[in-house]
Fold this protein.
Amino acid sequence: MLRFLTAGESHGPQLTVIIEGIPANLYLTGEAISKELFKRQGGYGRGRRMQIEKDTVEIMSGVRHGYTLGSPVTLVVTNDDHKHWLNIMGVAPIEESAQANMKRVITKPRPGHADLVGGMKYNHRDLRNVLERSSARETAARVAVGAVCRILLDQLDIEVISRVKSIGGVKDKGVYTIDEIKAKNDSNDVRVVDDAVAQQMRDCIDEAKKAGDSIGGEVEVTALNVPAGLGSYVHYDRKLDGRIAQSVVSINAFKGVSFGAGFNMADMPGSEVQDPIAYNGEGYTRLSNHLGGFEGGMTNGMPIVVNAVMKPIPTLYKPLQSVDIETKAVYQASIERSDSCAVPAASIVCEHAVAFELTRVILEEFQSNYMEQLIEQMTVYRARVKAF
Ligand SMILES: Cc1cc2nc3c(=O)[nH]c(=O)nc-3n(C[C@H](O)[C@H](O)[C@H](O)COP(=O)(O)O)c2cc1C
Ligand SMILES: C=C(O[C@@H]1CC(C(=O)O)=C[C@@H](OP(=O)(O)O)[C@H]1O)C(=O)O
């Protein structure tokens, strides 16, 4: 069973991940994982924090001479910004009086962030104790996990890619081939295929920033060459589309997921939604992919297409009304240093969340202790499905 736990505060010394269940004999290097982290760090609209960090992974366990051992893999991402927060983030106990006087105790929760409800839930009167962990800094750890999964999926000839479809209402309405998406999505800072739209998006982000506002958008993740039959219709928690939806909506600020034609299906007749079945000698295929690769909670062999919506960033440089939790007086919310748009970065997080869910289900269906066994099982399965 593949599982992981992440730990670490946004301005603490490091993020730590333990991944359990990666088969032995997978070639794995810190450089390959860090390449994905680098993509997440970037993107137009990010704040100053990302200029401080140089996210790279150190492998602390589970790998020897470049290959996984089958034991837990521990990854560490250092927070370079921690050195600026040594007093504020100290672990050693301090006097209560010093705590109260310490600069930057946060008492004015930001609407839309976890501050107020997190404070109520864990009984924290300094809301920094909430924001340190609710921060999307944690998504760096999740991308590290997803990067390991992508490296494993690559051995099975499965690829996961993503692109940005809209930012702040500016939409890329183009229909693109996989090659067109791949050619652009790592090379431009809004991760959008159409260059003219890219500039409109940058302008839109600049305007929002200037106005002290923030914007969200929509991303698309596509998984290619996934065999039919992953997931199951027999029970709710084995439906793979459901698991992917959970994983994607768990990413900070993600509020919606759809597959294929998504919410447009509500207005389409059945004859235009269901994908006709064909057999082309190479196996079964569909004449369209409106369902985004899923039928009955199972992959159907077509590309998996996941659409996901990110709300605008909650921290606003022109803050909304809030209430001071000490005085109960109405104030403007606190201003923390912040991104004005993180949709491009978040598309990378989504891509890695999908990679994790695919790897998890593959390792459930083809239980394997080592990579050779996994590759062999997948090859036999692909041939069987083709000949069905
Ligand atoms: C990559 C990424 C970067 C983010 N950066 C910020 C940020 O700079 N400021 C902020 O307030 N929220 C940021 N967010 C969103 C918050 O973390 C998120 O809104 C918050 O944790 C509350 O969770 P919810 O929106 O899912 O309810 C970011 C999210 C992602 C995915
Ligand atoms: C640190 C990251 O994103 C952070 C996510 C975040 C939030 O509230 O979610 C708030 C900001 O934190 P800071 O105040 O330290 O700049 C972002 O920079 C990251 O993506 O690595």
Summary: DSSP finds twelve helices and 17 strands in the chain.
